[in-house]
């Protein structure tokens, strides 16, 4: 692990304060390649100090006392379709200062929000975005969350970039991914919608190309992506560095993950690090953060100098930045990790229909339960009909408890499970709902309530043999039920 960077230790988010724009501050901001804070807001008729104004100022601030900014990956896709207007609005409402979206051009040249080259995963249509006109694309409906062919359709439509920028205009910044080859068309949209100060361009293009773009468009916000393959590009900017660098490293020994390299970036710019997947920041992920912050966000901030974190867990990151806690067990609840079943082996502690651990996670030696590591979430996987697991549960207080399960699956139906307490008969089948991805974990209510005495109990989770089963179990959670008026 990289040693801490005490010279640039970043505090948790500071309370928002109102700032007065001075000539000095404006000149300093312009020197970083951005517009003077507040200048575009006044020219466009926006309110004098919106959330977007504050995000713009914060983005241009790289001092040692700055707070960490939250960037929502494809918007808040946990509450709305990815890259949709509702996902953008929900991300800002949940506390993100930046929303990341992906841009592609339709056959008739309209910039729209779409991650994939095709519309197959996220809509009810098929085909390449570049082969469809905007009218054809607009007729399609977006699927929930991360999409998938078995995911439910919504009433939402594929938005244009103009619609997205208008929605973000007073709320925050928009990280414009996959736009560099279409940067001039995108710039025209920003100008037409009065959102130049909201749009954040990024690329790993040759520095001469980047400088030319920034010279033509001095008000453009720009972030340069660096990894070991182009680490030397940082020096090519000279004294005209962009206000942020996105740093990608899959190993802690990478050049761009080195303390000296990162200190050099932090001296002039914000450092953006991605927490979504293992290979983006050497396994310091969102999901690992929810197990222990030191395995993710805390180390990205304190050890690697991150001052912007892109995340798939907006609310959890916001909670961590405000309180220092992540993934905490609710007061009075009991959490049972899926892989932490009782000892005893096949037929006693569990029943698994195939030999060995089929997953890539840290299963117990000599046992056949399948355990996967989904970008830091350690979960029981390869779930199949007739299998079961037994757990020991220590209940802290007598009372009524409702059961929830943190699960993931891209299938509909994903499967069913039944619960048996203390050797009793299994209860009614609980349906696992589609979460729109194997890596998209969600805490789902099980509809099971049980009165339990204080002390140790056993709980057996069994999968119906006659039902389709293909889902992952992160953990079970027993939460105390509070009666009305208590």
From TrEMBL:
Protein name: Carbohydrate-binding protein
Domain GP-PDE: 68-321
Keyword field: Signal
Keyword presence, Zinc: no
Signal peptide positions on this chain: 1-41
InterPro entries: CBM6, DUF4996, Galactose-bd-like_sf, GP_PDE_dom, PLC-like_Pdiesterase_TIM-brl
PANTHER family: GLYCEROPHOSPHODIESTER PHOSPHODIESTERASE 1
Gene3D superfamilies: Galactose-binding domain-like (2.60.120.260), Phosphatidylinositol (PI) phosphodiesterase (3.20.20.190)
Residue ranges of domain CBM6 in the record: 334-479
Superkingdom of the source species: Bacteria
Alphabetized Pfam families for the sequence: CBM_6 (PF03422), DUF4996 (PF16387), GDPD (PF03009)
């Amino acid at each position: 692990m990289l040693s801490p960077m005490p010279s640039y230790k970043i505090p948790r988010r500071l309370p928002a304060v109102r700032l007065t724009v001075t000539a000095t501050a404006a000149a300093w901001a312009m020197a970083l390649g951005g517009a003077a804070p507040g200048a575009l807001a006044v020219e466009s008729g926006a309110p004098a100090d919106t959330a977007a104004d504050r995000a713009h100022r914060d983005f241009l601030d790289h001092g040692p006392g700055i707070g960490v900014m939250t960037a929502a990956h494809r918007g808040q896709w946990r509450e709305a379709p990815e890259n949709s207007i509702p996902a953008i609005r929900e991300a800002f409402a949940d506390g993100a200062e930046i929303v990341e979206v992906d841009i592609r051009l339709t056959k008739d040249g309209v910039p729209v929000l779409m991650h994939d080259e095709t519309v197959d995963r996220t809509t009810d249509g098929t085909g390449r975005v570049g082969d469809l006109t905007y009218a054809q694309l607009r007729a399609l409906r977006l699927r929930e969350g991360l999409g998938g062919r078995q995911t439910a359709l919504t009433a939402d439509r594929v938005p244009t970039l103009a619609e997205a920028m208008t929605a973000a205009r007073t709320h925050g910044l928009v990280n414009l991914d996959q736009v560099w080859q279409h940067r001039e068309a995108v710039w025209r949209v920003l100008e037409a919608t009065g959102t130049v100060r909201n749009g954040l361009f990024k690329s790993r293009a040759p520095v001469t190309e980047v400088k030319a773009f920034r010279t033509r468009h001095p008000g453009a916000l720009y972030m340069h992506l660096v990894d070991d393959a182009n680490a030397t590009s940082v020096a090519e900017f000279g004294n005209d560095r962009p206000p942020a660098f996105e740093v990608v490293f899959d190993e802690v020994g990478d050049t761009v993950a080195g303390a000296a390299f990162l200190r050099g970036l932090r001296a002039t710019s914000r450092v953006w690090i991605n927490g979504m997947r293992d290979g983006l920041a050497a396994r310091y992920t969102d999901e690992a953060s929810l197990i222990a912050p030191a395995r993710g966000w805390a180390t990205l901030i304190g050890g690697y100098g991150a001052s912007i974190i892109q995340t798939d867990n907006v609310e959890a990151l916001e909670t961590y930045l405000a309180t220092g806690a992540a993934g905490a067990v609710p007061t009075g609840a009991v959490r049972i990790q899926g892989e932490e079943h009782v000892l005893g082996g096949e037929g006693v502690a569990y029943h698994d229909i195939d030999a060995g651990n089929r997953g890539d996670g840290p299963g117990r030696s000599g046992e056949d339960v399948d355990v996967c590591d989904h970008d830091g979430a350690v979960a029981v996987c390869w779930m199949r009909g007739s299998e079961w697991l037994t757990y020991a549960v220590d209940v802290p207080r007598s009372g009524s408890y409702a059961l929830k399960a943190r699960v993931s699956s891209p299938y509909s139906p994903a499967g069913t499970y039944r619960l048996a307490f203390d050797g009793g008969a299994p209860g009614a089948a609980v349906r696992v709902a589609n979460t729109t991805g194997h890596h998209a974990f969600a805490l789902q209510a099980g509809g099971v309530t049980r009165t339990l005495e204080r002390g140790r109990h056993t709980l057996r989770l069994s999968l119906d043999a006659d039902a389709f089963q293909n889902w992952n179990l992160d953990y079970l959670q027993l939460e105390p039920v509070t009666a009305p008026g208590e």
